[in-house]
Amino acid sequence: MIQGSLVALVTPMLDDGSVDSGSLAQLIEFHIENGTDGIVAVGTTGESATLDEKEHCEVVRQVVEMVAGRIPVIAGTGSNSTREAISLTQCAKQAGVDACLLVTPYYNKPTQEGLYQHYKAVAEAVDIPQILYNVPGRTSVDMLTETVVRLSKVKNIVGVKEATGDIQRAKDILAQCGNEFALYSGDDATGMEFMLSGGHGVISVTSNVAPRTMHEMCVAAIAGDRETATLINDRLMGLHNKLFVEANPIPVKWALYEMGLIPNGIRLPLTVLSDSQHDVLRQAMQQAGVI
Question: Domain spans of the chain?
Fold first, then answer.
């Protein structure tokens, strides 16, 4: 089981919106040097919604090649089309990833039975460990605990990223699925409590900017050391909140640009961070000690 601080990696882009492979390689080395426990490539923070399928598969392939087995790589392969999700998951398996992360189908709002059949179809089509991803604030569909429990019985569905921030839901999933089913927080602000309640890690936006500190906080929280985890997490709380002053990944890409790690490129319909938010985010970055 992959545990700890798993970065929901941004996809670096040039001003024209093209993928910047040089900055991608630099980011990966930054994370490995700073203790990140795993990389999620081309998840929703990686702008999966606006990369075409060829680009998506190529970025995943590059990340696997650049990481070269030093830490686990999880590929975001979700879609609101089951056929496309299968195709992306097949590409990721061919690239050599360790697992895939599949967001719930967005916009078309399937029923709980539709969610079950969607994930079951992908799992049966591609023999690779798969992690469910529930983020109703972005997708307008909430995968309920009973559906997660049903899907946990599918042999290669190995975990869930739960981004509701509902700690009781995490406890319910743990109680019903057992400790062998991986539980990842998708909400940085409540990630510490999630892990102290039995979660196995965080798939994190904050860790793009503060990887070493996030890793240290996750180590303490998974070990049940509330005092140490709280001391570390307090420094990160500004980032947990201010990295969402505009739609993710707008603020985190600007923060990485401010740190000199990537260009300022982002794809429409997203735009660069508003000038009025620059000082707000800089203050959070200073509190976390990253600038």
Answer: 4-229
Taking each helix axis from N to C end, the angle separating 278-288 and 250-258, rounded to the nearest 10 degrees, works out to 70
The string of pLDDT tens digits covering residues 222-244 is 999 999 999 999 999 999 999 99
Write phi, then psi, for 172 (nearest 5 degrees): -65, -40
In the prediction, which pLDDT does 263 show? Answer: 97
CA 234 to chain centroid, in Å, comes to 21
pLDDT digits (tens, 9 = 90+) for 21-68: 999 999 999 999 999 999 999 999 999 999 999 999 999 999 999 999
For Cα atoms 64, 6, 277, give the angle at the middle one, nearest 5 degrees: 110
Determine which one of 106, 119, 133, 257 is catalytic: 133
Please report, in angstroms and rounded to a whole number, the separation of the first and last CA atoms in the chain: 33
Judge whether 116 counts as a catalytic residue.
no
Please pick, among 93, 161, 242, 253, the residue that the annotation labels catalytic.
Answer: 161
Asked if 238 and 287 count as a contact pair (C-beta separation under 8 A), the reply is: yes
Cβ atoms of residues 158 and 131 within 8 Å: yes
Written in H, E and C, the secondary structure of 135-189 is CHHHHCCCCCHHHHHHHCCCCCEEEEEECCCCHHHHHHHHHHHCCCCEEEECCHH
Residue 165 C-alpha from the chain's centroid: 14
Q: In the chain, which residues have pLDDT < 70?
A: none
Residue 242 is a catalytic residue: no
Please give the CATH topology (third level) of the domain spanning 4-229.
TIM Barrel (3.20.20)
Predicted pLDDT at 1: 86
Around Cβ 215, how many Cβ atoms within 10 Å? 21
Close Cβ partners of 44 (under 8 Å, ≥ 6 residues apart): 8, 76, 78, 103, 135, 138, 248
